[in-house]
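My convention is simple: the sequence line spells out the residues, with the fold written below as integer tokens. I include a record here:
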Amino acid sequence: MGFGGLKEDGMTPDYVLFDHSRDIADQIAEWLAEAADTLAALPATGTRPSTHCVKWPDVVFDPEDLDWFRELEAFMPPPTAEQIRRMDIALGWLSLIDASQIRLRRVINMRLIVHPVSGRNRWGWEKIATKMGISEPTAKRWHRLGCEAIGKKIMTR
């Protein structure tokens, strides 16, 4: 296995190694949770038109004001290149879930939405269950089944 190449499935880099003494679905879930945190920590630059410009002067704060702002700005630190690389890999796995199992993909996608300040999932299990019209244990089971489906596809390719 060379560093940076792709496995036969064309989606999973060969440096993605799983601990075969642990459950693959658990490891997939961990990768997806990390991907969600990384996605939330990405800077939101380039979301506005570049032609839009405000001509207000720069504001110079007193040192006391700056300390107050630092207390409020508890954003997650920007992700490293390695974290972004792992996020790209994990998010690419979502396409491995068959179209016939779209409910599993939807539950996983909802769990990928993380608040950038608190780091908490915006879609808790109860909220997912209500949205999907299922019970909370069923939502958790679907998430698990989705991770298992991804794991099976990765391991068989």
Summary: Residues 32-41+60-156 form one domain. The two ends are 15 Å apart (CA to CA).
